[in-house]
Design goal:
The chain is of the alpha/beta class. The protein has 2 domains: 152 residues, Collagenase ColT, N-terminal domain (Glutaredoxin, 3-Layer(aba) Sandwich), CATH 3.40.30.160; 122 residues, no CATH class. Helix content is 56%, strand content 9%. The protein contains 12 helices and 5 strands. A 5-stranded mixed beta sheet has the order 1-2-3-5-4, sandwiched between helices. β4 and β5 form a beta hairpin. α9 crosses α12. It starts with 6 loop residues before the first helix and ends with a helix. 35% of the residues are buried. It holds the Pfam family Peptidase_MA_2. This is Peptidase MA family metallohydrolase. It comes from Metabacillus endolithicus.
């Protein structure tokens, strides 16, 4: 899935900002009104009649999301969640005021929303639209599962900084996707802790999703996938992310800042050199 896409291609269409005006239950009820409904595991899928061919695709992606997040976090007690299909990015914006957005997860209301960018391309598995659609579902479902796991540790969800949330969601959304490294504008991880922080730097053209993805990928490459779960568990013990992070990894956030890009860049330089020979 998406094996030949570059990260640049993905990020052109994949930005998920956070809105200050929350969508209400009544708004969601209006979005779901008159739609077809299909139940799969713990997910209720809401779609228009002509979008019915997407349902088995969504079910396959949910299976993959379940497998990947269970491997990362272990078994998590699932809530019932609603997955609402939006006919386009424009429709999603009209209903939620979220701009440049292909998907969202509303934690308090257990709602996932996904935009359909090109129905025929997605149904026929044409790139890149098929990849964007599936990757967005993986990303948003990972937000749901990650937050459920954090809550099970009796930890406030945003005691874990936003860069970690988004990095894990991107790690799953981009799982096993081949890409090349390219330079990007980064900031300190201390600037990517809250939603407000995130929006500030995102809107100043920092590649905050890419930065967070590379940070999580570095941690997995260095310590293995169980490190992500360990960081959360250790954070729950101290109620402090920086302490939990260092306890789990043996390094500080400052160490991560100084190493994660260096390692990624070196990996791709080595790979390119080997291909040239």
């Amino acid at each position: 899935m998406g094996g030949n896409l570059t990260l640049e291609e993905k990020y052109q269409l994949y930005l998920i900002p956070f809105q200050s005006n929350k969508v209400t239950i009544a708004d969601y009820q209006a979005m779901k009104k008159d739609k077809m409904v299909s139940s799969y595991k713990n997910v209720m899928i809401y779609y228009e009649t002509h979008e019915k061919e997407l349902v088995p695709i969504i079910e396959d992606v949910l299976n993959r999301a379940d497998e990947l997040t269970t491997n990362l976090l272990g078994d998590v007690h699932d809530n019932e969640i609603d997955l609402i299909l939006h006919s386009s990015i424009e429709d999603l914006y009209e209903k939620t005021s979220l701009v440049q957005t292909m998907g969202y997860f509303d934690d308090p209301n257990d709602i996932v929303g996904i935009a359909i960018t090109d129905l025929s391309d997605i149904v026929s598995n044409q790139m890149p639209q098929s990849f964007y659609f599936q990757s967005t579902i993986l990303h948003e479902y990972t937000h749901y599962r990650l937050q459920a796991f954090i809550k099970e540790q009796e930890l406030y969800v945003y005691r874990i900084p936003l860069w970690f949330h988004e990095g894990v969601a991107e790690y799953v959304g981009m799982y096993n996707v081949a890409h090349r490294y390219y330079p990007f504008q980064e900031t300190s991880f201390s600037h990517l802790v809250t939603h407000k922080d995130w929006e500030k730097y995102r809107l100043e053209d920092y590649d905050v999703y890419l930065q967070s993805y590379y940070a999580i990928k570095y941690l997995v490459d260095q310590f293995g996938e169980p490190i992500l779960k360990s960081i959360i568990i250790e954070t729950a013990k101290t109620n402090d992310f920086n302490e939990g992070f260092t306890k789990a990894t043996g390094i500080t956030i400052e160490d991560l800042q100084s190493q994660y890009i260096k390692e990624e860049n070196q990996y791709f330089q080595t790979k390119n050199e080997s291909l040239q020979h």
